[in-house]
Amino acid sequence: MKRLLLVVMIFLFLAACSSQEKSMETAKDTVLIEVKNSTEYEIYSLELRYYHTDTLFGSQQTMKAEDGPRLRKGESLAFILEESNLNFEQEVFFELALIDVLNNRKRVVIGEKFPLTLKKGKRYQLKLTGDAPNNLAVTGLEEES
Prior knowledge:
There is one protein chain. The chain is mainly beta. The protein has one domain (26-144): Immunoglobulin-like. 14% of the residues lie in helices and 48% in strands. The chain is built from 1 helix and 8 strands, in the order H-E-E-E-E-E-E-E-E. The model is unreliable at 4-9 and 16-24 (pLDDT under 50).
């Protein structure tokens, strides 16, 4: 009986690990933009705006809530973009902003808009650097399969 219980517990553990890993995988008709916090600043919420030419086409806001409200150094937030929301065939300009909950939810733009031609099913990784809202920067744009 103990062996059966042990086997069931191991199976459940492995299934949970597997499903957590797959949650960051990108579906074939979506793009995942993952933003990794490499700052010491307390980040609670981020907003990603996307533009075609100079026209705002859409935005998403996300926050960390799994094991606490603060995005710690080394942790990431993800934005999932669907092809139905924007045209993957055109160059898209992105703007990342911090929603500073420590300062009346003030929206603080991080760096300049950056261009990106999206490819379906890809994951793009960005890294936030800096130590205060007025000197944060977006670096390290990498494309992964």
